[in-house]
């Protein structure tokens, strides 16, 4: 296991059990069985470690939701699949989800707030694309309200499961929220959010990742990953960026090969956007 990955996994266990503020770097290094020097070779500070955790898990969550929305062809199943994927992914990473929700309330770290806001914006774009696909012009005046309605459902029920140990039935919950969302889409007549208000609330997004940046990121993952079908796929995807020769079906197949690897999810997400798959 790579040193950074070990530190992140062990730190997450401590953060979940005793909280971020109460966890020291000394405790993290003891839990990992490494020296403080080894820690500082991987991360400059505890704050940098926290930001790396946010990145790692939000990349996986965003990638999973984006994949579901893009690859569910049946519109009748889309909303259900969206909710199911979202809750199931957060459940798989419940330790991180608890930390994320607490940090959004308690943290005064500006960089952390900016990072969480960035991933929130990405997920809002995914939700908006789903709303426009499902309901079309019918919900044009209320589509931004629907985004926040859906996010409100997600946040409320996540906290119910994470902090109150309520029984988990993803299937029933997803069905229930599909019904609620459809009712709101069909019967809401008084919008609150306007385009102008949304633009005022949201700061400009980061620029799209360039081809050169994608190549650099792929090269880094190729170095990190041991010999596997994921590594071979990354090599072919890098070559495709440098000199396109493969048909779209093969590129999609290569993306399928890497999308479930925890260290390749974000590359898969970025490449799907780059190729508009």
TrEMBL record:
Q: Where are the transmembrane segments?
A: none
Pfam family membership, one: TetR_N
Coiled-coil parts of chain: 208-235
Per the record, DNA-binding region residues lie at: 24-43
Task: Extract the signal peptide range.
Answer: none
Instruction: Answer yes or no on keyword Amino-acid biosynthesis.
Output: no
Question: Sorted alphabetically, which keywords does the UniProt record give?
Answer: Coiled coil, DNA-binding, Repressor
Where does the record place the HTH tetR-type domain?
1-61
Q: What is this protein called?
A: AcrR family transcriptional regulator
Q: Which SUPFAM superfamilies match?
A: Homeodomain-like
Fetch the InterPro entries from UniProt.
Answer: DNA-bd_HTH_TetR-type_CS, Homeodomain-like_sf, HTH-type_Tx_Regulator, HTH_TetR
Q: Which PANTHER family match?
A: ACREF/ENVCD OPERON REPRESSOR-RELATED, TRANSCRIPTIONAL REGULATOR, TETR FAMILY
